[in-house]
Amino acid sequence: IMIRTNNRKTQHTLHRALKSRNKT
Fold first, then answer.
1. What does the angle CA 16 – CA 17 – CA 21 come to, to the nearest 5 degrees?
2. pTM above 0.85, yes or no
3. What is the DSSP string of the chain?
4. Residue 21 binned pLDDT confidence (cut-offs 50, 70, 90)
5. pLDDT category of residue 3 using cuts at 50, 70 and 90
6. How far is CA 10 from the centre of its chain?
């Protein structure tokens, strides 16, 4: 579960970074 949670957090961060990059 811990690994899964970490992966989810990483995915969320990646998505946020992608959106921010797209905005730029």
1. 120
2. no
3. -HHHHHHHHHHHHHHHHHHHHHH-
4. confident
5. low
6. 4
